[in-house]
């Protein structure tokens, strides 16, 4: 597909090949725009996401299709999918159906963290601080 | 670094090695939470971002350090940097200093698009629609 079609066209032509079969999918809470997690999507995961209406990824560590929530119950319901200019990144805008999106739990509450991005870099000390 | 330190610690230990030297950096407008772009960061790009206070990436196509805005003027000033649980993805929260974050221009206005994510998948037709 030429550059103009890729950037200005209406055909979905996600460039999975560019980085070994996967594109990163940014998962964003549709309610407040918070980024919940980032995971990887291949052709099958993309199609499964559309079919199920639930955020589905390819687990590059377990090497298998991964519909978030199938073991934990923390499904992420798809509201919107966006692609970027050169179609090598996606945004899944979701409504979380369970406790959170992260696999970690807060030591204080014992509950699943809502987002994987719970630490920021302190720009002075260069260390991480919990947000 | 063990899993507990990685997930619960305060040491920055970004896992660049996991995917060939780079991690994806989600660029988010601090004003409204809109995702503007996604690009890749290696150790040098991360350090340069901290040093300059401007979003810097590694261009995997040109194979060079890339401080966004150096040619276009569209710098992305760093307000906050977040990392995820297993430290293999970053969020750069930024204040755009120029016209936008995308390299494309809107055919209607002739202006640089503010975000690279200007199309969404129509969940019925599976085609792209401009947002």
Automatic annotation (TrEMBL), chains A, B:
Keywords: Amino-acid biosynthesis, Cytoplasm, Histidine biosynthesis, Hydrolase
Keyword Lipid biosynthesis on entry: no
InterPro entries linked: PRib_AMP_CycHydrolase_dom, PRib_AMP_CycHydrolase_sf
Entry's family note: In the N-terminal section; belongs to the PRA-CH family. In the C-terminal section; belongs to the PRA-PH family.
EC number: 3.5.4.19, 3.6.1.31
Record PANTHER family: HISTIDINE BIOSYNTHESIS BIFUNCTIONAL PROTEIN, HISTIDINE BIOSYNTHESIS BIFUNCTIONAL PROTEIN HISIE
Source domain of life: Bacteria
Enzyme class name: hydrolase
Single GO term (MF): phosphoribosyl-AMP cyclohydrolase activity
Segments passing through the bilayer: none
Protein name, as recorded: Histidine biosynthesis bifunctional protein HisIE
GO biological process: L-histidine biosynthetic process
Involved pathway(s): Amino-acid biosynthesis; L-histidine biosynthesis; L-histidine from 5-phospho-alpha-D-ribose 1-diphosphate: step 3/9; Amino-acid biosynthesis; L-histidine biosynthesis; L-histidine from 5-phospho-alpha-D-ribose 1-diphosphate: step 2/9
Taxonomy of the source species: Bacteria, Pseudomonadati, Thermodesulfobacteriota, Desulfuromonadia, Desulfuromonadales
Keyword Glycoprotein annotated: no
Start and end residues of each Phosphoribosyl-AMP cyclohydrolase domain: 37-117
Residue ranges the record marks as coiled coil: none
Catalysed transformations (reactions): 1-(5-phospho-beta-D-ribosyl)-ATP + H2O = 1-(5-phospho-beta-D-ribosyl)-5'-AMP + diphosphate + H(+); 1-(5-phospho-beta-D-ribosyl)-5'-AMP + H2O = 1-(5-phospho-beta-D-ribosyl)-5-[(5-phospho-beta-D-ribosylamino)methylideneamino]imidazole-4-carboxamide
């Amino acid at each position: 597909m030429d550059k103009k079609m890729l950037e200005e066209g209406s055909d979905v032509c996600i460039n999975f090949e560019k980085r070994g079969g996967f594109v990163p999918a940014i998962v964003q809470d549709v309610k407040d725009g918070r980024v919940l997690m980032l995971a990887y999507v291949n052709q099958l995961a993309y199609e499964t996401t559309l079919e199920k209406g639930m955020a589905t990824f390819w687990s590059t560590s377990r090497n298998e299709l991964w519909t978030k929530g199938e073991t934990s119950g923390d499904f992420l319901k798809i509201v919107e999918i966006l692609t970027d200019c050169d179609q090598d990144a996606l945004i899944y805008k979701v409504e979380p159906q369970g406790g959170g999106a992260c696999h970690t739990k807060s030591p204080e509450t014992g509950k699943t963290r809502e987002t994987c991005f719970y630490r920021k870099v302190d720009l002075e000390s260069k260390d991480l601080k919990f947000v």
